[in-house]
Design goal:
The complex is a heterodimer. Chain A contains 5 helices and 11 strands, in the order ααβαββββαββαββββ. Chain A is of the alpha/beta class. A 5-stranded parallel sheet of chain A has the order 1-11-6-3-2. In chain A, strands 7-4-5-8 form a 4-stranded mixed sheet. Chain B is of the alpha/beta class. The chains are: A alpha/beta, B alpha/beta. Chains A and B meet through α1, α4, α5, β8 and β9 of A and α2, α3, α4, β1 and α8 of B. β8 of chain A pairs antiparallel with β9 of chain B.
């Protein structure tokens, strides 16, 4: 027997299980999902910016950085091993009020690595695209269409040295979400 | 493995840790702080208990049907272009990883956190083949440079002080040995590891959740090291213990809400990354590892396989906080580590079920409701029968024999009450009196309860 057969043999039954019943979680609700989102994102070290206008120049004005701007809303040439992205602008499909996370799917429109190579990350999000919790978030995702995508909540961070929180581990050092639309 | 290693003595190891009382107190307080953050996060979610119950149900259901879900995962992942390989034990796993790396001519590997690779001794094996492995999680990089091992599954370097880190970094990253500022040291590590990322031929990651229905998997980090590491090179090898499978992505709503809140008190990890297909032009492998897990499935410890590795049981454990992760002598420390180690190899880890006050705090914080303290209590029955507990076992048998004989017991206790106060201190506090090592033996009462009861009834 090969390893797979040995393991499956040791695990025993392989019949098709009955589907699990739906869980009645009764997830939390917010009177103002936008405010809840902002608060959660701030707790995660990020920031929300209310913005009617989201041109690259306007967004760049909210950051202090060196290096170039990559706006993924326009076409992006290959940037593998690019050490010089000061600001990356991406769109998020939706946000999550309970934890300040945004769902980012590069969709092969730009290479995965720019998301973590960039020193600063600007995320453009439509205000009406904020769901209350992760339950509603996962209902929105079609996994058949995904290659690599992520929830991101604030800038990269670590507390591995004496539990002291340091913003900026391997990915973005600064992360701001620009909320588009009426407040 | 039994017999290859001498029995591990938790109490002895713990004594070494507590010898530095200041450091031990810092450790205790630091972890209690994490526990308090967890409490605040859990309390902010009114449906917390429903989430725990749902997570427990999903995990128990999945464990019952592991064979089905793993095969489903394999076929769905293949459709996505992911190559799935199976390893029955640590040796097979090491061999498979080494073979893949050799095939692709990979010589430099960046690795994000995976307790499985630690369990299977992957780093030393790859290094023996001349492959450079760089742990990229900051805590893991610190212990790797120190030639040490993680002492906590979420906070690998929690046993070290910032001065220790400054010392190690000054040797390897040429930082200022007198600057122990966490910000300064973290930035230095960022620069150092950025070079490693850009230079890597392959990435190895763990897996937090593998999705049977979608044929993909989720990796959670705060540092972004798994994302950066896997995005750059064309080869990504993801490693999972076979218990990491869940039925579908819809279950992620429940698990992602529980994991980070339980681990660090964050509402979600900074990066919750979903890998479904290889990157364009790249190769993606998933290795499913058994290494003793299927054996556990058919024992009374099967529930321990539900663990999602949040570390909450460690942070709350009064013994772990005061004895440090290394005192357990197993890759996973704390309550869950004691259960897993004991279930695997009770002869070597017989002291671990006793490294527990049976307070059950671990049960109450566990996001998947593993009955840890009950498991440890049951494990004691197996532990007491191992050879190294012969002396203790015989004494307990003797005590049981005496206690079944009330008259003899009465006479003996009366003698003790009379003799004990007359004995010189050296005779009472000797190496056989374990209880008296840290405490005073109470002064014996003049008369026993039975005597008083007989007089007054």
């Amino acid at each position: 027997m090969n390893a797979k057969e040995r393991i499956l043999h040791a695990l025993g039954r392989r019949d098709v299980p009955k589907e699990l019943p739906a869980f009645d979680i009764g997830p939390m609700r917010f009177s103002d999902v936008g405010a809840a989102f902002s608060e959660a994102l701030e707790a995660a070290g990020g920031e929300t910016v209310e913005s009617r206008e989201t041109s690259a120049e306007t967004i760049a004005g909210h950051f202090v950085f060196e290096g170039r701007i990559v706006d993924t809303r326009e076409s992006v040439t290959s940037t593998t091993n690019d050490r010089n992205i000061g600001l990356l602008i991406v769109e998020a499909e939706f946000g999550v009020a309970e934890n300040g996370a945004v769902w980012i799917d590069p969709k092969e429109r730009y290479p995965r690595e720019v998301l973590t190579l960039a020193e600063n990350l600007a995320v453009v999000l439509k205000r009406e695209a904020i769901v209350p919790t992760m339950h509603e978030a996962y209902e929105r995702i079609d996994f058949a269409e995904i290659s690599y995508a992520l929830f991101m909540a604030g800038p990269s961070k670590t507390a591995d040295i004496e539990q002291a929180l340091v913003i900026g581990a391997h990915g973005a050092i600064g992360m701001k979400v620009f909320l588009e639309g009426e407040g | 493995m039994s017999g290859r290693f001498p029995p591990m003595d938790h109490a002895k190891n713990a004594a070494e840790f507590t010898a530095d009382s200041e450091r031990a107190h810092w450790h205790d307080r630091a972890l209690w702080f994490v526990r308090q953050k967890r409490d605040r996060a859990a309390k902010s979610v009114p449906e917390w208990e429903s989430l725990r119950e749902a997570a427990e149900t999903i995990k128990m259901h999945t464990m019952e049907h592991l064979g089905f879900y793993l095969e489903r995962f394999e076929s769905q992942a293949r459709r996505n272009g992911i190559e799935v390989l199976w390893a029955a034990d640590a040796e097979e796993f090491r061999h498979i990883v080494a073979e893949i790396l050799r095939e692709h001519g990979a010589e430099k590997v960046v690795k994000s956190k995976s307790m499985l690779t630690e369990e299977c001794g992957l780093n030393p094996h790859l290094e023996s083949l001349g492959i450079e492995v760089t742990d990229t999680d900051l805590g893991e990089r610190i212990v790797q440079l120190a030639g040490d091992h993680p002492s906590h599954i979420v906070l690998p370097a929690i046993h070290m002080k910032k001065e220790d880190v400054a010392d190690i970094f000054s040797k390897y990253l040429h930082t200022d040995p007198d600057n122990a500022d966490p910000f300064y040291l973290t930035r230095a590590a960022r620069d150092h590891l950025r070079e490693k990322f850009l230079d890597a031929d392959a990435a190895i990651t763990g897996i937090n959740f593998a999705l049977a229905e979608e044929g993909g998997f989720v990796v959670c980090t705060n540092e972004g090291n798994a994302d950066l590491g896997t995005a750059l090179p064309n080869l990504h090898i993801a490693c999972m213990g076979l218990e990491k499978i869940i039925p579908s992505a819809q279950d992620l709503g429940i698990f992602t809400r529980l994991l980070a809140r339980s681990a660090t008190g964050q509402a979600i990890t900074t990066y919750t990354s979903h890998f479904l297909k290889p990157k364009p032009g790249g190769r993606l492998y998933v290795i499913i590892v058994d290494n003793g897990r299927s054996r556990l499935l058919n024992t009374r410890h099967n529930k321990a396989l539900s663990c999602i590795r949040c570390g909450a049981c460690m942070n709350t454990c009064p013994v772990y906080r005061r004895s440090g992760g290394h005192s357990y002598g197993y890759v996973i420390p704390g309550p869950i580590g004691s259960v897993l180690a004991g279930a695997r190899e009770i002869e070597r880890f017989a002291s671990l079920p006793f490294a527990c006050s049976l307070c059950a705090s671990c049960d109450n914080v566990c996001p998947v409701r593993i009955d840890l303290h009950a498991q440890l209590y049951r494990e004691r029955r197996a532990a007491i029968n191992v050879p190294s507990y012969g002396e203790k076992r015989r004494l307990l048998h003797l005590a049981a024999w005496v206690m079944q004989r009330p008259k003899l017991y009465g006479v003996l206790m009366k003698t003790v009450r009379f003799v004990l106060p007359l004995l010189p201190r050296a005779l009472v506090y000797n190496r056989f009196n374990v209880w008296g090592r840290e405490r005073e033996v109470p002064e014996p009462a003049k008369r026993s309860f039975s005597e008083i009861y007989r007089e007054r009834r």
